[in-house]
Every structure is written in structure tokens, then in C-alpha cells.
Amino acid sequence: MQDNIAQGQAFEILPGDARSGLVLLADHAMNRLPVEYGRLGLPEAAFARHIAYDIGVEPLVRRLSARLDAPAVLGCFSRLLIDPNRGEDDPTLIMKISDGAIIPGNHPITAEEVENRLNQFHRPYHRAVSATIDAVTAASGAAPLVISVHSYTPAWKGVPRPWQTAILWDNDPRAVRPLIAALEAEGDLRVGDNEPYDGALRGDTMYRHCMATGIPHALIEVRQDLISDEAGVMEWEHRLAPIFSALNERPDLHVLDRHPSRTGPYTAPLRQELER
């Protein structure tokens, strides 16, 4: 179990070399809560489950960031508090029930408390992502390649998930197609293409920072049982680092080109939300 975090500690930035042109993200890296929230009325065991964070992602992204010398942004709070990979108007932004677990600390919840969590955690995290992308853009002189790392459970409602890894995406194939091809070329992986769920989600991290701005990107999921210990994390570091490096060397993945979203037309610039 992670230690409690101080009020307002919403993110951690791993600096890397901004000239690299690569940005790594880990929205659900940690399962921490600020002390004033206790455990949201949940047992301690809930915070070892996927409902609280993406198991294995924090050590994997730390290792990838160090090996590739690439900047990374890690979310420092449990998604049970508020989910940074949801838009501010998404009904699943603050979950009242998750995979059968009722979350007493999230229901009932006032509009003031929702705004407080947005101001203390959700918005600061996204400001850090924007600042990191801006820094890499300025240092490299081109659009960065953004790769977001997540993990998923090996089974859902009793049904096994056969994919060892999956790529979730909306409507920009530039980084996705070569990433899927490289993973399939490993020879021993079954790669999900928008499996086990669809990657087109209005207002999520990839939508906000990449789809809406034209930045090349991909979201990769690794099955949690494969990165639940140090040996698994090291194996996937060795798999992914050369693939990410090869993608990052492609000039076509450092060009702004905004694709239409499958979720519908873009509206006001999302960065205006970050100024609130």
C-alpha cells in the first residue's frame, strides 16, 4: 500500500531529456489518497485492486523513462478519488461503484466536493501533462510522440482476456498501426486492437492532449498479471523500450495533424479548462 499523500500532490514528473521528442504518461500510476479522505469508506484490500490504480504501470513507466531518457508524468492519486482519464463532465469521473465495490466516500457527493477534487487533483495533473508536452515541443522543435501506459485485469466478470497487450485509440492511426505491427512481430503476443474496450472516449487524456491538438499518440495496455512483479516489469521494459524508441525515430510521428474524433466534433479548446 502506498503512503498517504500531502494535499495537492497530484502528479510526479520524471524529467528525462526534453529533446528526445517522447512523452510517457501514466494516468493511473498510484493508489494513494490524501489523509483527509481516509480510505473513502473502503477496506484496505480495495487499494490493492485494479479499481484503485493500474497495477504494474508505475514501475514500468519509471523504467521506460529512465531507459529512454524520456520525460514522463505520473498521476499520484487513486482513481477512486477522481479519474484523471475522464473528462470533467463524464459521469464516471468519480465512481460510486466500481467492479462491484460500493465507494461510500463518493456517495453522496456535493458539487462543491467535485469541484474541490477537480481543483486539487484532476486539473493540476492535466496542467502537468500540458506543461511537459510544451517543454518537449520547445526543446525538440517538433510535435512530440505521446504514449500513455495502462494495465487491465486478466479476466472480466469471469471471462478471460486472451490479449497480453492492447492498443486503444480513437481515429488517429499514425502511431497505432506501427505499434501494433511491432508488437505482433514479437511472435508470442496476441495484441488487442481496441480490445478489451474501445479507446475513443471524449474528454479523456488522449482526447484532450493529443486528438484535439493533432499530436501523434498511442495508448498501450498491458495485462496486469504480466507486470505484477519485478520480473514481469523488466520483461516488458525490454519488450517496449526498443519499440518505443523506433517509433520515436520516425519523422512522420513528430508532425501535427488533427484527425476527426469518432466521438463527434471538437468544441472549445480544452486547454481553457486548465486555466480555471
UniProtKB/TrEMBL annotation:
GO molecular function annotation: hydrolase activity
Keyword Protein biosynthesis recorded: no
SUPFAM superfamilies in alphabetical order: Zn-dependent exopeptidases
Name recorded for this polypeptide: N-formylglutamate amidohydrolase
Signal peptide coordinates: none
Keywords assigned: Hydrolase
Superkingdom of source: Bacteria
Residue ranges, annotated region (Disordered): 256-276
